[in-house]
Amino acid sequence: MTAQLGKIGIWRPHTDLSPELAVEVEKLGYGTIWVGGSPPADLGVVERLLEATDGIAVATGIVNIWNSDAKAVAESYHRVTEKHPDRLLLGIGAGHREATAEYTKPYTALVNYLDVLDAEGVPASGRVLAALGPRVLELARDRAAGAHPYLTVPAHTEKARSVLGAEPILAPEQKVVLDPDPQRARTTARPMIQFYLRLNNYTRNLKRFGYTDQDVAGTGSDRLVDDLAVHGTAEEIATRLKSHVEAGANHVAIQPLGEDPLSAYKALATALS
Question: Which of 103-112, 135-144, 145-154, 162-171 has the lowest mean pLDDT?
Fold first, then answer.
């Protein structure tokens, strides 16, 4: 059975997650903790978060197929779900070409990885794929419970829903900056956005949705930064998050940028309630 994600979750690198933070996030009413930054195949961090909490779902966002052996991940999946049934969603993806020396024929490698998970008894209903382009979105539709796109905008969400169809999970990640001052918010967001603008899979995808070479050059245009890291008051951000839902998302995973993410979680939980 697929884990119940709720409408809004949090996305944090696995190195920035702790059982204590998980407890606080669950108290605030979030539905899912997304464990980002290519968590190890043993899923130890996932298990610790689940053990510390009562009912919140935990999803990987994402296990990198180049770094984590499929059989090892399958073994971990079964170990964790036996202890915590219906609370784990396995997010899987091929990462990006520039970060992995072995990155060749990623689509084929992803298909092969899914074949191993199938053989090891990991159900399609227990996994989602990091999907940007149409081909991997179709794979997410046909061989997983849905898709977990990263660094996207509502226009992509709308397109992804049209490819996936009505039933599959569509859970985009959305960066946010809780700051009503646009210039200060952009200063906070730009280092993170700039990192991804060096990666071809993300810039190619953004260009599919109307962003220009100038938008994705350097540190990114103001327009691009504002769209990829929505900013403002908690109420303004909550309104922007609804754009993904209106475009077809079942769930939105928010990633606050800045030095105090817990304060952002608290403010947004109130605005989103």
Answer: 103-112
Query: In 3D, which of 138, 57, 50, 59 has the Cα closest to residue 92?
Result: 59
Superfamily of structural domain 8-175+234-272: Luciferase-like domain (3.20.20.30)
The two structure tokens encoding residue 117: 């998970």
Q: Residue 220, by phi and psi: left (phi above 0), alpha (psi -120 to 50) or beta? A: left
Are 268 and 176 spatial neighbours (Cβ–Cβ below 8 Å)? yes
Reading the block at residue 26, the tokens are: 């669950």
Residue 169, strand partner residues: 146
Q: How confident is the model at residue 105 (pLDDT cuts 50, 70, 90)?
A: confident
Q: Is the pTM of this model over 0.90?
A: yes
Domain ranges of the chain: 8-175+234-272
Q: pLDDT band at 147, cuts 50/70/90?
A: very high
The residue type of 54 is D
